[in-house]
Design goal:
- With 290 residues, this protein is an alpha/beta fold.
- It has a single domain, classed as Alpha-Beta Barrel (TIM Barrel).
- The protein contains nine helices and ten strands.
- Strands 1-2-3-4-5-6-7-10 form an eight-stranded parallel barrel, surrounded by four helices. Strands 8-9 form a two-stranded antiparallel ribbon.
- It is globular, with a radius of gyration of 18 Å.
- It starts with 5 loop residues before the first strand and ends in a 9-residue tail after the last helix.
Amino acid sequence: MSSLLLGSHTSVSGGIYKAFDRAASIGCTTMQVFVKNASQWYGKPCTDDDVLKYREAETKSNVSPVIAHAAYLINLCAANPAIRAKSREGFLDELRRCEMLGIRALVVHPGAHVGAGEEEGIKCIAESLNAAHKLTKGWHTYSALETTAGQGTTIGYRFEHLRRIIDLVEEQDRMAVCIDTCHLFAAGYPVHTKEGWDATIKEFDQVIGLDRLVAVHVNDSMKPFGSHLDRHEHIGKGVMGLEGFRALMNDPRLANIPKILETDKSEDLHEDVENMSVLRGLIEPEKRHG
């Protein structure tokens, strides 16, 4: 079994290349980053110098693979045409940045239909992805849809939603999926128990296929099971308990999948250190591999 791929969403303050040292300093073996300011539509261009510094840092680092998360403003099925156009442009820009840097996957929330209905939203998301892919022929970065909690009118709280989007995408080999433990729990998937975890992953494999899974966001939940509320909590400090996380950390089907924390942290990152320690402590002795 390969070494444990466990890390966190890491700050890119001062330059995206600096994330490697930050992640390594707290024991991450993988990480997730933003490739631009996640709270703004537009970011400063990614220059050749940025790419060179990133590639040099990547070569020297043992933190790999790197996953990117798209800006939260992006809504690929926005009912407002102006917002939808901005979202498509923003997604394309982030795909371009990922391709330049050699990042394997860009995780994006599918979107919120804002009253248009789930079926219309699903079609619109696929149209947005097709539009981006047509302009990026031959690129290697995956477009990775994230499972959602189902808050408001968000799409992606059922595996079938993501399956239908993928089915409508013309270049299906460019599609991947990221699951989030908090989102699954809030959406009503019983990932907080060993039996529930196993059943959920089996269902995921049947509906979507484990070959499309590129990352797991590892988050506890502040809110109850089936609440459809997306509120992350530190591992073991929310309402999920540790049994489901133990099942995740010992699941051979996910041994080679990056496991990424997305919980709040202080400047010294001690919360990430503590959360990773808890998760490592759940691994059965015979399965410890890094």
